[in-house]
Design goal:
Length: 270
């Protein structure tokens, strides 16, 4: 039974990661063919960095991901603080449930609803709404918020409330108590949420497709548009770089979470 469970685990891993490994492997194939492998080469990576359109899409994606994740982190942290401070259990439960709804919605539902919202807003004379960076920033910030809140809220719940009360008793103002006592305690959750938001924004396609414009194209949209024509083999290099970047971010998230838990345990033991 144990051997069968191990075999099942390896089959699942193969189905999940074999396509990614093939993509990364053939991104180094100089022959530009999926039929044979002629040897390792960085040719397609050099071709990628000569593609001005791809580099512009990469810059747009990075600017959008950084901006939306930072804004969502600030709003989400304050929202998590507000939910944690809510005294009514019914209201707190309702707010938590409402927070989960955007994550349960299919991306296409969120994308279409955001598009309809911006179309309706554009019809208002005094609201100069144009599809492009602004609409994508609002959309990405919106779908990042639940993940930020769910990353930060448990940290507020795990924090010892006596620390805040002691700081207030010693003369700290509520604002100073938040920045000096509470913020450092929940910082690992904030960092984790920020990285998750950055990753989600960087590789989002469905929602971006409905709220974008030809003037502002992100990397996933650029890759999708390339599939409508004969695919360049530099796209394999591009996708491989995205895999490496997301893998690095996930490792950083896990490292930050483990370091925060270790620090919290050491503080509790002290």
């Amino acid at each position: 039974m144990k051997k069968l469970s191990h075999a099942y685990m390896w089959v699942v891993f193969a189905l999940l990661y074999a396509p990614i490994l093939v993509l990364v492997l053939f991104s180094f194939n100089r022959a530009g063919s999926l039929n044979h492998f002629s040897g390792f080469s960085l040719y397609w990576y050099r071709e990628l960095f000569r593609d001005a359109t791809a580099l512009a899409a990469l810059r747009n994606s990075l600017v959008l991901a950084v901006s939306s994740s930072l804004i969502a982190t600030v709003i989400g942290t304050l929202a998590a603080l507000g939910i944690d401070r809510t005294r009514s259990k019914f209201l707190k439960g309702s707010l938590t449930s409402v927070t989960n709804i955007p994550m349960m919605n299919p991306d296409i539902v969120t994308g279409v609803s955001m598009m309809l919202l911006f179309v309706a807003a554009a019809s208002v004379p005094f609201l100069p709404v144009r599809f492009g960076f602004t609409t994508m920033l609002i959309a990405h910030t919106t779908f990042n918020l639940p993940y930020i809140i769910l990353s930060v809220l448990p940290r507020f719940r795990q924090m010892d409330t006596h620390l805040r009360e002691a700081a207030l008793d010693l003369g700290c103002t509520p604002a100073k108590t938040f920045f000096k006592v509470e913020l450092p305690a929940v910082l690992p959750g904030i960092v984790s949420g920020l990285m998750i938001g950055f990753t989600l924004s960087l590789d989002d396609f469905v929602i971006s497709h409905f709220v974008s414009s030809p003037d502002f194209q992100t990397l996933p949209l650029y890759v999708y548009n390339q599939t409508a024509h004969e695919i360049k083999y530099s796209m394999y290099a591009l996708c491989a770089l995205m895999v490496f970047a997301i893998l690095a971010l996930l490792l950083a998230v896990n490292f930050a979470g483990a370091k925060g838990e270790k620090k919290q345990k050491n503080g509790g033991a002290a």
